Amino acid sequence: MATETSTETSAGQERPAHRRRRGGRLGAFLFATPLRRHLVLAVLAMVAVSVALESTDAFRNGQLAAMAYFGIAAGGLTVLVGLNGQISLGHGAFMAIGAYTAALMLRGENPLPLAVVLVAAAAVALAAGALVGVAAARLHGPYLAGATLALAVAVPGIPLHFSGVLGGEQGLTVRVPAVPDWFADAVFFVTGQDPGRSRYLGYVGWFCLVVTFVLLANLARGRVGRTWRAVRDNEVAAELAGIDLGRARVLAFVVSATCAGLAGGLLALSARIAAPSGFTLSLSLLLLSAIVLGGLGSLPGALVGAALLTFLPQLATTLGQDLGLSDVRAAELAPLAYGLVTMLVVLFAPSGIAGWVRRRRTSPSSSPVPSGRHET
Amino acid sequence: MPDIDGADTAGAGFAMAGVSVAFGGLVALSDVSLEVPPNRVLGVIGPNGAGKTTLFNVACGFVRPDAGELWWRGERHDRLRPHRLAGLGIARTLQDLGLFEHLTVLENVMVGAGRHARTTFWSSLLALPGHTREERALADRAGAVLDRLGIADLADRTPAGLPYPVRKRVALARALVAEPRLLLLDEPASGLSGEEMAEIGELIRGLTDRMSVMLVEHHMDLVMSVCDDIVVLDFGRVIARGRPEEVREDPAVLAAYLGEDVPAEPGRSTC
Ligand SMILES: Nc1ncnc2c1ncn2[C@@H]1O[C@H](COP(=O)(O)OP(=O)(O)O)[C@@H](O)[C@H]1O
Ligand SMILES: [Mg+2]
Q: CB distance A223–B83 less than 8 Å?
């Protein structure tokens, strides 16, 4: 939606560059402020999501729910890595914290409403993120990578030590709350079908994703995001401009960890379990590779990365089966396909898939001014 | 207030009194005192390794002095933190410019305008109208400064690939947009042509109705024409101070610095 047609560009040249507006009256109204822009996109996204969820079966609904929680975690991570230049190899740990929080809160006979549970999952991860972030703000490059790596390795070990409360190796099973009546009624009213639990979780996940992305996009577009990018680009100059480097870094880390916590809560619901095996180091690394594939610092890129994480393994397996491979052999294709895509992206689209799309879209109009990096 | 070595610490300007810095055994600054009264331009000159950059770093809180006092507008600030400088009304340009390479020129300058921003994290998170209005105001403020420096047409570009003199203007705009009371300029003329240098000199003189300026510079022409007062450093000590015409004649300066055949030689960068 950020496309500028060539006529608009030439019309905008009289006005100062920073006051250039997009054309069309309705467009002008809907896109006048970043918030309106993001909300319009959010509504469109929700419509697309309901079409997708309603036209697919329970299995696909589950996959879409998974894409949603991967997307939320990747969105938070891409803000941290892409906009603020910090690395985290340990975001799986924050997902674990969110997942266990949700699992614990859903255990009793009368659990709290799902919204409260998910907010709590995010809040506990926020607190953990603040603790880790304070340490992270002092570390650079390989030290930060090492510290967050240790986090990714250590956190899944915690349930083993407190197996009484956290269920040890087996983990905690998660009871998914019943679909609320008002929701079932609303869906029935529109589609004439009763939504199953996986469809319900699909809606919940994508609603959370859309809300998260609107908030992240607001941050990225505004002063906070600019501050993060300034710190990433030049610490000394940022400090001289009045930015407290430590505060900016901790804030980015906290925002990012909060997203991961929410994603973890949703993962626990979808998987119906929170267990150490779900949060191995490879989860953290996959998240990181997803945002690199999508394009660092780009929220659409994070979504593309999440889609790859979710659908590529199954796509590769199905392809393998179609080619006559045994099921076991076909399953082995998944990491291969993922590696292949990674290689192709690194070779041909170093700024990620989102960056590549953006360039394809802007280059034919050959605007004389390179658009630089616009991360939202 | 005490007067140390003639630095008027109680004044409304910026002052350093008896500042000493040693790196290990190496004395970078030794008992340096200077003052920048309001609306005046102080030039700091001296040969390579004299301690000029260290002096700036002390003034910005990047280097904590072993001894001495820092005064700003009548208050003592011995524990300066760099990120508090902007709030105190002090801005500095960096010799290597330190532009935010992946931000647009306008955004670069908007970051410098952060001092004028009031809204919170939450209003940014929710993109509240107040935040959006403030963003527009910051953009206008930044745009106005770019306009004044004649680079408004480059607002949407990233600094990468812009010619060096233009990049210097972006860095200057980022410092000026904060509307500081004291501007520290690290080699504002290096890498500029004679014509551009004259322009920058005029620009600096034009700032004095709003702020004081302290600059480190190697182009004697510029220093002599722009500065009200000059402090000459050599091996971390002040060897001369005074008005340009006095310093020019000072035998100690001639021996230590001017004798090196530096005066009019452009592009000699030592910071
Ligand atoms: N961070 C530092 N650590 C050790 N020595 C330093 C440091 N910064 C500067 N110096 C030394 O202090 C002296 C003064 O340096 P500097 O202030 O950069 O001089 P100038 O800017 O006048 O060329 C030089 O001898 C330099 O090598
Ligand atoms: Mg120097």
A: no
Is B221 inside any structural domain? no
pLDDT per residue over A240-280, tens digit each?
A: 999 999 999 999 999 999 999 999 999 999 999 999 999 99
A332 CA from centroid of ligand 1 (Å): 59
Q: Alpha-carbon distance B119 to B127, whole Å? A: 10
Task: Tell me: pLDDT of B92 over 50.
Answer: yes
Identify the domain containing residue B114 by its residue range.
101-179
What number of CA atoms fall less than 13 Å from residue B26's CA on the CB side?
Answer: 7
**A:B CB pairs within 8 Å:** 134
> Ligand 1 within 6 A of B68 CB?
no
Mutate to test the pocket of ligand 1, among B19, B44, B45, B53 (most ligand atoms within 8 A of CB): B53
> How far does B82 lie from chain A, in Å, by closest CA?
6
Paired with B186 in beta bridges are B216
- Which residue from B173, B200, B188, B183 is spatially nearest to B112, judged by alpha carbons? B173
Report CA(B232)–ligand 2 centroid distance (Å): 14
pLDDT digits (tens, 9 = 90+) for B32-69: 999 999 999 999 998 888 899 899 999 999 999 999 99
For A308, half-sphere exposure in the C-beta direction (CA atoms, 13 angstrom radius) is 29
Single-letter amino acid code for the residue at A232:
R
pLDDT at A15: 47
C-alpha B231/C-alpha B32 separation (Å) is: 10
| Eight-class DSSP state of A112 | P
Nearest CB partner across the interface for A240, out of B82, B131, B158: B82
User: B interface mutation test: which of A18, A39, A227 has the most B CBs within 10 A?
Assistant: A18
In this prediction, residue A44 carries a pLDDT of 94
Q: How high does pLDDT run on average in chain A?
A: 87
Q: Is residue B171 part of a domain?
A: yes
What is the tally of structural domains in chain B? 1
Question: Is A41:A48 a contact under the CB 8 Å cutoff?
Answer: no
Judge whether B246 lies within some domain: no
Beta-carbon separation of A243 and B114 below 8 A: yes
**Which residues 6+ apart lie within 8 Å of B8 measured at CB?**
B15, B35, B37
The distance of A150 to chain B (nearest Cα, Å) reads 30
Residue B194 and residue B122 in contact, taking contact as beta carbons nearer than 8 Å: no
Cβ pair A252, A76 in contact under 8 A: no
Indicate the length of chain B as a whole number: 271
Per residue in A282-328, pLDDT (tens digit) is 899 999 999 999 999 999 999 999 999 999 888 888 888 888 888 88
User: What gap in Å lies between CA B114 and CA B179, rounded to an integer?
Assistant: 11
Kindly report which listed range (A127-136, A271-280, B247-256) carries the lowest average pLDDT score. B247-256
Q: Is the CB of B43 under 6 A from ligand 1?
A: no
Q: Are B76 and B186 in contact (CB under 8 A)?
A: no
> Residue B236: pLDDT above 80?
yes
pTM for the whole thing? 0.88
A151 C-alpha to center of ligand 2: Å? 42
Q: Does a structural domain hold residue B231?
A: no
Residue ranges with CB less than 5 Å from ion ligand 2: B 53, 271
Q: Where does the pLDDT of residue B10 fall: very low under 50, low under 70, confident under 90, or very high at 90 and above?
A: low
Complex-level ipTM? 0.90
Mean pLDDT computed over B141-167: 96
